[in-house]
Each structure stands twice: as C-alpha cells, then as structure tokens.
Amino acid sequence: MLPEGLKKDQKFDEPILTPSTKAEYGLHDEPISRAEIVNGLVDEKIYAKAEEYALKLFAAGQEWAAKQGLILVDTKYEFGISNGKIMLMDEVNTPDSSRYWIKDDYESRFEKGEEPRKLDKEYVRTWLSEQGFTGKGTPPKLTDDIRVEASARYMEVVEKFTGEPMQLDVGPVDESIYSILNPFAY
Questions:
Q1: Are 128 and 113 in contact (CB under 8 A)?
Q2: CA distance 12 to 16
Q3: Which end of the chain is more exposed for a tag (fewer CB within 10 A), N or C?
Q4: What span, in angstroms and rounded, lies between the C-alpha atoms of 45 and 38?
Q5: CB 71 within 8 A of CB 93
C-alpha cells in the first residue's frame, strides 16, 4: 500500500519493487506478485537475492545520477537464472529502461504543481497515448518533430552522464551493427 496523500511526481520515502514477467509471446511486461514468483517460478531465497540486487543497483544508480544533476526516478532490471546463479541481463539504468528528471529545479517545480523536466522516452509514450495508441495494434508513425525531440533528450542524457558533448558518427546503420556483432560471429 502506498502512503495516503501522495501527489503526482512526489518521491517515495523508500523505493518500491513492482515485479513483472513477460506476457505470452513476450510482447510486453505483465505485473506479477511476489507470492506468484516464489510459489511457482523461483525459490524464495533466489527472489530475495534478486530483490536485494535490484535495490542496490537502484541506490547506486540514484547516487550516480545525482552527481550528474539528474534524478533516477524509476527503472527496470531484468534478471534470469543460469547454472543456478542470478544473472543481470539487458541494459542497466539507460534512458530506454529508466526515467530521468532534471534535479536542479525538481523541488521548485513540484511545489508549484509543475511537471518535472524529463529526459527519457516517456515523451514518446505520452505522444502515442495522445494519438489514441494503447499499446495494441500498429502504432502511429512518429513525426519528425517527435523523433528529433526524443533524440535531443537522449543526447542530453548522454552528455549529462559523461560530462562531455555528444560525438555523433553518422553513417550506414547496418555497417555499424555488423561491425559490433561480427566479432561475436553473428
């Protein structure tokens, strides 16, 4: 249960975990309870360890983000089990798996009831929702304005993360992907 009286965009006193699993055919994530996880998917000890890892990763991500002038609002970590060991998979604390807000004016904007300044893909989700897309069927084609704004937000996150201007190497995408995957025999 969440505390009473919470306001939109208010920080929780403690992080909360909202486990999910892949829906049928792996098309999207679906909520799942802790009880469902430990009563059929994994042992209680394994779940508790994954929970511990998630909270430690999130705390480290929040600390690092704060040093960069950002707030790590929430994120998604993907865990699996291989040879009896918990494995962290996929991306960690990227703008695709996380929501970031600008730290320096969050408090003043919150007090005024204003939206925080956001640097994540929520901008695209909001636009899709405004077009009537609910996640089912074919999404509408993104306009150039939406794509450019999303790119600008991602580049700003990269620059805040690294403390350096974004260096773009423009060229054929397929060649870039091939050069990355070729050493792994893909």
A1: no
A2: 8
A3: N
A4: 9
A5: no
| Closest CA relative to residue 98, chosen from 116, 121, 117 | 121
Q: Give phi and psi for 149, each to the nearest 5.
A: -65, -45
Spatial contact of 19 and 48, defined as CB atoms under 8 Å apart: no
Sole residue written with tokens 């929520």: 122
Q: Which helix (H) or strand (E) holds 128?
A: helix 122-130
Q: How far is CA 24 from CA 28, 29, 32, in A?
A: 8, 9, 13
- The beta-carbon contacts of 1-8 under 8 Å, at least 24 apart in sequence, are 7/110
99 — phi, psi (to 5°)?
-115, 135
- pTM for the full predicted model: 0.80
Is the Cβ–Cβ distance between 156 and 120 less than 8 Å? no
